[in-house]
């Protein structure tokens, strides 16, 4: 049963690793950023609300994100497991996730903290060519990460739920490291 939270600064490779692990483990990859980009493309009410935040590199308000995650977890494909990418991003979101998982009688295996030196992050993001990857928006997203998201590292570390993984090595090696952490958890279970 794989229930995994991928954590790290923007550009750390969460999306790449989440997609690979989802494929390998046969569970859905839940990326709040992808859900917002899809909603914006389709101009749904959530998309219309979220657009300015994404364009400016700011966080979408917690209540909007939490409703969206709650809705996603009501889909039956999440029953066998899931990989969360980009959520939670604030302490209130982490509390909301705890509440949601306890309601649906689920837990999670681990928070994987992908560590990548700051100087690599900007280069990686500039290479992706996403709409919110212009240099000033990238800098804003890194600042938002420092201020609002990085406190979650201690939040989960204090609960012994966080494992650091070096995200600066080649993609395959990162995936292998995450898999070995997961199998240690299975052995311990
Ligand atoms: P990502 O694809 O995870 O880098 O997310 C892209 C953008 O979507 C972020 O810069 C935010 O504007 C928004 N977003 C994604 N996930 C969240 C979240 N958990 N909380 C608030 N905003 C989010």
Number of strands: 5
Bound molecules: adenosine monophosphate
Low-confidence stretches are: none
Structural class: alpha/beta
Largest sheet: 5 strands, parallel
What count of structural domains? 1
Written as H for each helix and E for each strand, in order along the chain, the element string is EHEHHHEHEHHHEH
Rg computed from alpha carbons, rounded to a whole number of angstroms: 16 Å
Helix percentage: 55-70%
> How many individual helices?
9
- The gross shape turns out to be globular
- How much is the average pLDDT? 95
CATH topology: Rossmann fold
**What CATH architecture do you see?**
3-Layer(aba) Sandwich
CATH class reads: Alpha Beta
- Identify the quaternary structure here: single chain
CATH superfamily: P-loop containing nucleotide triphosphate hydrolases
How is this structure best described in words?
- With 189 residues, this protein is of the alpha/beta class.
- It has a single domain (3-30, 82-188), classed as 3-Layer(aba) Sandwich (Rossmann fold).
- The chain contains 9 helices and 5 strands; from the N terminus they run E-H-E-H-H-H-E-H-E-H-H-H-E-H.
- The protein has helices at 14-25, 32-41, 45-56, 62-73, 91-103, 118-126, 135-149, 151-158, 171-188; strands at residues 2-7, 29-31, 81-85, 110-115, 162-166.
- Helix 1 (14-25) crosses helix 9 (171-188) and helix 2 crosses helix 3 (45-56).
- The N and C termini lie close together (11 Å).
- The site of adenosine monophosphate has 16 residues, from helix 2 and helix 3.
């Amino acid at each position: 049963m794989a229930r995994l939270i991928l954590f790290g600064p923007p550009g750390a490779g969460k999306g790449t690793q989440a997609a690979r692990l989802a494929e390998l483990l046969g569970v859905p990859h839940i990326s709040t950023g992808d859900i917002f980009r899809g909603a914006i493309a389709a101009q749904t009410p959530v998309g219309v609300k979220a657009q300015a935040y994404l364009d400016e590199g700011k966080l979408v308000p917690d209540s909007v994100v939490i409703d969206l995650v709650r809705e996603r977890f009501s889909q039956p494909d999440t029953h066998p497991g899931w990989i969360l990418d980009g959520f939670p991003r604030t302490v209130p979101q982490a509390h909301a996730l705890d509440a949601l998982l306890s309601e649906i009688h689920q837990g999670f295996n681990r928070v994987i903290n992908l560590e990548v030196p700051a100087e690599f992050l900007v280069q990686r993001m500039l290479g992706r060519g996403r709409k919110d990857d212009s240099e000033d928006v990238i800098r804003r997203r890194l600042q938002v990460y420092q201020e609002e998201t990085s406190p979650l590292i201690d939040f989960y570390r204090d609960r012994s739920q966080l494992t650091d993984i070096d995200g600066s090595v080649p993609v395959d090696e990162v995936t292998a490291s995450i898999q070995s952490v997961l199998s240690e958890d299975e052995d311990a279970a």
